[in-house]
Amino acid sequence: MQDHASPDWGQPPGGAISFVARGMALLGGISLLVAALVTSISVVLRWLTSQPIRGDFEIVSIASGAGVFFFLAYGTLMRANILVDTFTTWLPRRVAGLVDAFWMLVWAAVTLWLAERMTIGAWETWANGMRSIGLLALPYWWAVAIGALAFGLTGLSALVWAARFARGRF
Questions:
Q1: DSSP secondary structure letters along 64-111
Q2: b/e per residue, 91-115, with b = 16+ CB within 10 A?
Q3: pLDDT score, position 1
Q4: I need a surface site. Which of 36, 80, 151, 160 has the fewest CB within 10 A?
Q5: 28 to each of 5, 42, 74, how far by Cα in Å?
Q6: Would you kindly state where each structural domain of the chain is located, as residue ranges?
Q7: Of 117, 125, 127, 152, nearest in space to 141 by CA
Q8: pLDDT (tens digit per residue) in 21-69
């Protein structure tokens, strides 16, 4: 039986991290819509004129990748990630919360490490002028920087949940 005594039971965390995560999720939706529109328009143009949108594969791959990154923090805040609680449902709520806090800390550590690595990657990509291989030759540094930002915010979101789990407020 769930204890509903906590005032924020079942509610996602609020505050600045939540605000930014929601904004990034909105950008993720827009990014995926752009990818879908470019794909659709390019297919229609191929059919009508035999000429697609120039660089459509580059645009779609970068927009799709960025879109996925943009949803990570929001998914963590909403606890919409894959949860396997088969082994913890029988545990007392407080113990299950501590187990969840541990795994949120692991998730935070992994995502913050990835953010740090991608930050270095964005800097190196910018410094060496790396560009996409294709018709548009788009610079990659900003796409890698988006990934670093997204992983950083995801790590912060996981830390917020870890603290809530550890305090028994979930």
A1: HHHHHHHHHHHHHHTT-S----TTTTTS-HHHHHHHHHHHHHHHHHHH
A2: eeeeebbeebbebbbebbeebbebb
A3: 35
A4: 80
A5: 35, 21, 10
A6: 16-81+91-167
A7: 125
A8: 999 999 999 999 999 999 999 999 999 999 999 999 999 999 999 999 9
Tokens, residue 69:
């990154």
Residue 76 — pLDDT band, cuts 50, 70, 90? very high
Q: How far apart are the first and last CA of the chain?
A: 14
- Over the stretch 79-89, which tens digit does the pLDDT of each residue have? 887 666 667 77
Instruction: State residue 108 phi and psi, 5-degree precision.
Output: -60, -45
Task: Tell whether the model's pLDDT for residue 99 goes beyond 70.
Answer: yes
